[in-house]
């Protein structure tokens, strides 16, 4: 099955896609596609954004006086913002895939499901393909924002942009921005993939896929809203 056929099968027949992926765990195409899409989006966004307004918005949440805020703002340039966003974006993308692959590897090894790390690594990359929907939506938001897109343009399908509309300075902004409706598609694909490979119950696969997310977002939400 070619990469294009795998993309199509993820939509029309995901079980077949994961069956083929199990035999040939290739991940280069989704990996490079996701990297290129995210890198291009970050560069375009920071080349278009009103840096002064963005920096002032970022510094508003910090306990600084006017002089300190002006000094901090003078140190933050378009290039530093773009560079830090690129490094964080690339590293987080890889770290998430590696951690998820190791998680599936060890959990299903414990459940006596023998699969290699490479297979799980390929599964996590292919299951992340739906995030390209977010990239497309972000491109649309930047286009309609003309010359002054906001930070929300990078995550237009997040809970924050769709429902809550917190500002960057608000404590719950990062938490609500990190949760996107597109993640539901990724979770669904992971459940189908783990079920296809393990032949264990649907309930078990749902628990395995959701457990780390519930723990991570539960702790994060507590710190963001209840601490």
Describe this structure in words.
- The protein is an all-alpha fold and 227 residues long.
- The protein has one domain (3-226).
- 76% of the residues lie in helices and 0% in strands.
- The protein has helices at residues 3-12, 14-23, 28-48, 51-59, 66-75, 78-110, 117-127, 131-144, 159-164, 173-178, 182-198, 202-226.
- The longest helix has 33 residues, at 78-110.
List the helices and strands and how they pair.
Elements: H1 3-12, H2 14-23, H3 28-48, H4 51-59, H5 66-75, H6 78-110, H7 117-127, H8 131-144, H9 159-164, H10 173-178, H11 182-198, H12 202-226
Helix pairs in contact: 1-2, 2-11, 3-6, 3-8, 6-7, 11-12
Low-confidence stretches: none
Q: Kindly provide the radius of gyration, computed on alpha-carbon positions and rounded to a whole number of angstroms.
A: 20 Å
- Structural class call reads mainly alpha
Provide mean pLDDT, rounded.
90
> Portion of residues in helices?
over 70%
Shape field: globular
Number of domains: 1
Number of strands: 0
What oligomeric assembly is this protein in? single chain
Query: Termini distance?
Result: 50 Å
Spell the H/E element sequence. Answer: HHHHHHHHHHHH
Question: In percent, how much strand structure appears in the residues?
Answer: under 5%
The largest sheet, given as strand count, sense and whether it forms a barrel, is: none
Q: Count up the helices.
A: 12
């Amino acid at each position: 099955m070619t990469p294009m056929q795998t993309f199509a099968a993820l939509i029309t027949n995901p079980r077949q896609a994961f069956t083929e992926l199990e035999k040939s765990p290739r991940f280069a195409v989704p990996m490079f596609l996701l990297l290129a899409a995210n890198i291009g989006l970050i560069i375009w966004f920071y080349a278009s954004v009103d840096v002064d307004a963005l920096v002032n918005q970022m510094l508003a949440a910090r306990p600084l006086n006017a002089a300190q805020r002006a000094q901090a703002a003078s140190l933050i340039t378009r290039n530093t913002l773009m560079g830090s966003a690129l490094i964080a974006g690339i590293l987080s993308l890889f770290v998430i895939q590696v951690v998820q692959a190791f998680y599936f590897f060890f959990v299903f090894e414990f459940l006596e499901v023998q699969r290699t790390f490479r297979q799980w690594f390929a599964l996590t990359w292919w299951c992340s393909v739906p995030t390209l929907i977010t990239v497309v939506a972000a491109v649309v938001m930047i286009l309609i924002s003309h010359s002054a897109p906001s930070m929300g343009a990078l995550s237009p399908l997040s809970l924050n942009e769709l429902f809550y509309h917190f500002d960057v300075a608000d404590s719950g902004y990062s938490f609500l921005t990190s949760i996107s409706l597109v993640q539901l598609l990724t979770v669904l694909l992971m459940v189908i993939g783990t079920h296809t490979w393990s032949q264990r119950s649907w309930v078990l696969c749902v628990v395995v896929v959701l457990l780390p997310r519930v723990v991570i977002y539960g702790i994060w939400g507590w710190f963001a809203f209840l601490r």
